[in-house]
Amino acid sequence: MKFSENWLRELVPDLPASEQLEHQLTMIGLEVEGSEVLGADLDRVVVGEIVACERHPEADRLQVCRVDAGAHGTLQIVCGAPNARQGLKAPLAMVGAEIGELKIKSAKLRNVESNGMLCSAKELGLDADASGLLELPADAPVGQPLVEYLGLPDRVIELGLTPNRADCFCVQGIAADIAAANGVLLSREVQAHVGAEIDSAVAVTLDAGAAAPRYAGRVIEGIDATVATPLWMAERLRRSGIRPVSFLVDVTQYVMIDLGQPMHAFDRDLLKGPVAVRYARKGESVKLLDGRDAALEEDLLVITDADRPVALAGIMGGMDTRVTNVTRTVFLEAAHFAPEAIIGKSRRFGLHTDASHRFERGVDPQLPALAIERATQLIMDYAGGKPGPVVVISRDADLPVPAPVHLRRDRLDRVLGVHVPSEDVERILKALGMAVAPQADGWRATAPTRRFDIAIEDDLIEEVARIYGYDRIPTTLPAAGAEIHAPTESRVTTLALRTHMVARDWQEALCFAFVELSLLERWQMADAHVPLANPLSAELGIMRTSLLPGLAQTLAYNVARQQSRVRLFELGNVFHANGNDAPIETGLFAAVATGDSAAEQWASSARAFDIFDIKGEVEALAAMSQCELTFEPSTPAHAHPGRSADILRDGKKIGWVGQLHPRLQKQLDVDTPVFAFELDVNALVQRKVPRAEALSKFPTVRRDLAFVVAESVSWAKISEAVHSAAGESLKALLLFDRYSGKGIEDGSKSLAMGLILQDNSRTLTDLDANQVMQAVTERLSRDFGAAIRS
Fold first, then answer.
1. Least packed by Cβ within 10 Å: which of 155, 249, 259, 516?
2. Mean pLDDT of the 212-224 span
3. DSSP string, 465-488
4. Which pLDDT score, from 0 to 100, does residue 478 have?
């Protein structure tokens, strides 16, 4: 939000100096992001009038102008501006003036003497427009210093407003806050009621329910739309970051910046019938003011004329009914739209308008009629005309009504840590426009309709704190002593998990917790998703249900920038809807990888990262918590068929590991296979407390066994069966060979494993080892049809 400091000072008298004012604004929560001084060094710049204009004898693009400078005489100036012409009034920098880093001197341009410079707005530092001379009104007094005529110097202040302070997207709202902070009264203009002089009106109906509960309109006939926007209005708009367009459009923009109510002006002669506010229907479209044809969806609000859409409600007007210089009858509209009906809609069309920016955050429902009256008075003052009655249609039951909020004296003191006198509390709340009723234990305050952010007691405490002054609240350290908790051995810290992954050549990523719904739908992970009530953008409108989509997008981003080997992990929370209760928040640990298994080196040849590498990373993590994992084949929608497994700990699923589906890989535009895993952090970090055990002093015995089984039998099942059959004497089981091909039937595989046997109380004999091997052989034959190879 940009605004003119001089404008603010007209509304609030006796404000401190500029630097202190900016500090005050920041301290009351209206953070000043920047400021720019206008017209501080424009000495010897006056209003000049071109009284004669001839082509330069030696340059087609230059003109030799005779410029009347009032008391300074008539000067000859060579000018190259395309709009330089006889009768034009423009800023004139005389010899000796300093414009930025340029000092004006007498000079010869192509052998013609020039004694000064006619200036554009950009050259004067007043605007970015450098297309021609800054054209001043015809009644501008020739010879008057420009700073006096334009009300300079001035300072443009830009605020970085938080979304909850929609009431300060206008100068009146900022003035109300800064007046309260300084304990002064606003110098508000008396808003006169403009009575109707004609009976002309447009019928209005509201057919969108609570989405559009109020609409105000007025017809004004016999206006002169060709009049120039008054200089004071044009300058205030320009200093608010809005370029003047035409008088009628500028009036609606000015009222929006002044009061905070977006408005629109229709050419009444181009309207064919009654006006209505409703939701769009499938197949409808409207041509917007920027020239594009917008295809409408059924959740978009539209303004209709004789049932044809003529504007996107709360976003942008339509081309077919816009006002132009030939407009003689105008229909002014101002409405109240529910924020949830406008949020995110403009982004579908790549738009970000001043109107949608305000409606998305909430506009005072009491403003529409007031804005109509203000705009009417401005139009009649400069363009004439006869107004009809103000038509206000409301669905009162759907209008937001501020609820009283109870503020307790003891809670105010406890939260702030300082006692604010009761008379100051009442003064602050009343200065902010609240209705205050004293209670036995505090106050009951009702916020004005413009303050959508006042809902609970803590909101009132914040209001008191920021206006009373954060710098008046003493800084004190907490009195309670800090408790130091000894780390537990029953859990692995998340820091240890991160450190482990970094040590194994992985990089940690931090992805947005907000994602686009279509992304989750592509991964088929949109079930029980949690939508945001007020998203930053349509692309960040849903809380993530998994870490993998964001990580995979980050991987694809890096691959697209010539990073052929990418290994990323993230530890974060995901969210799932839980009916009407708060969303379920779960901590997950995920990783994605593609490219070679190891960085480029001379000691070994390159090998692509594969399913066994990613499975090994999971097992390495599990080793930190001293747990044994099992893997069962699975087929989730995002996984490659046959290269995917659920991860189980103690028989309970805690995650997934595998290769991404080729469909997703293609959408990511990654040529090499992408492997990933995702684990429940709470299940992963639990570990048994280490317990020391004596090492056996007796030797180990090794027996090897080779056998043939069906290809479909997994090693995990075989390993489980061998441990069960061998009993406690089996200390380790090693798979050292896998073979299929010549000599092995199709659909079968040969596995060779080594069994390490040991007893803690005695040396095992050959008979002991043979008994174990017989038990294992019989178990494999019975459960899997395994045939022992000789």
1. 516
2. 97
3. HHHH-GGGS-----SSPPPPPPPP
4. 67
Determine the Cα angle at 445 with ends 444 and 446, to 5°: 130
* Distance in angstroms (rounded) separating the CA atoms of residues 464 and 452: 17
CATH number for the domain formed by residue range(s) 2-35+160-182 = 3.30.56
CATH superfamily of 701-788: Ferrodoxin-fold anticodon-binding domain (3.30.70.380)
Question: In this predicted model, what pLDDT tens digit does every residue of 128-183 receive, in sequence order?
Answer: 888 899 999 999 999 999 999 999 999 999 999 998 999 999 999 999 999 999 98
Q: What average pLDDT is seen over the chain?
A: 93
Alpha-carbon gap, residue 415 to 409, rounded angstroms: 10
Closest CA to 696 of 781, 768, 625, 763: 763
pLDDT tens for each residue of 432-459:
999 999 999 999 999 999 999 999 999 9
Q: Which two tokens stand for residue 13?
A: 């008298």
- The residues pairing with 279 across neighbouring beta strands, listed in sequence order, are 301
Residue 518 near residue 706 (C-beta atoms within 8 A) = no
Q: Return the DSSP state at 690.
A: P
Nearest residue to 52 via CA among 90, 87, 79, 91? 87
**Nearest residue to 163 via CA among 2, 29, 281:** 29
**Looking up tokens 């409703």, which residue turns up?**
278
Q: Give me the residues paired with residue 58 across strands.
A: none
**Residue 189: pLDDT above 60?**
no
Cis peptide before 153 (omega within 30 of 0): yes
Distance between CA atoms of residues 84 and 63, nearest Å: 8
Same fold, 2-35+160-182 and 494-685: no
At 167, list the tokens: 């009431």
Looking at the domain that runs over 204-398, which CATH code has it been given?
A: 3.50.40.10
Residues 6+ apart with CB under 8 A from 421: none
767 — pLDDT class (breaks 50, 70, 90): very high
Positive or negative, the CA dihedral 215, 220, 224, 229 is: negative
Strands (E) in 203-292, as ranges, are 204-206, 214-221, 264-267, 275-279, 285-287
Residue 355: strand, helix, or coil? helix
**Is the distance from CB of 412 to CB of 420 less than 8 angstroms?**
yes
Whether 225 and 326 have beta carbons less than 8 Å apart is answered as: yes
Per-domain boundaries in the chain: 2-35+160-182, 45-152, 204-398, 405-472, 494-685, 701-788
Place of tokens 């499938």: 282
Class level of CATH domain 405-472: alpha beta
Alpha carbons 259 and 756: distance in angstroms, whole number? 84
Token reading at 721 = 């069966």
- DSSP type of residue 322: B
| 476 pLDDT above the threshold of 90 | no
Helix (H, G, I), strand (E, B) or coil at 339: helix
Give first-to-last CA distance, the chain, whole Å. Answer: 85
How far is the C-alpha of 347 from the C-alpha of 315, rounded, in Å?
10
Residue 330 and residue 319 in contact, taking contact as beta carbons nearer than 8 Å: no
Q: What is the pLDDT of residues 368-417, one digit of tens each?
A: 999 999 999 999 999 999 999 999 999 999 999 999 999 999 999 999 98
CATH 3.20.20.70 fits 45-152, yes or no: no
411: its two tokens: 């809670």
Query: Do residues 505 and 567 lie in contact, with contact meaning Cβ atoms separated by under 8 Å?
Result: yes
Within 13 Å and on the Cβ side, how many CA atoms surround 128?
5
Q: Which CATH superfamily is domain 494-685 in?
A: Bira Bifunctional Protein; Domain 2 (3.30.930.10)
| Helical residues (DSSP H) of 481-547, grouped into ranges | 494-503, 517-522
Nearest Cα residue to 237 out of 528, 554, 4: 4
What the block records as the tokens of 770 is: 């043979």
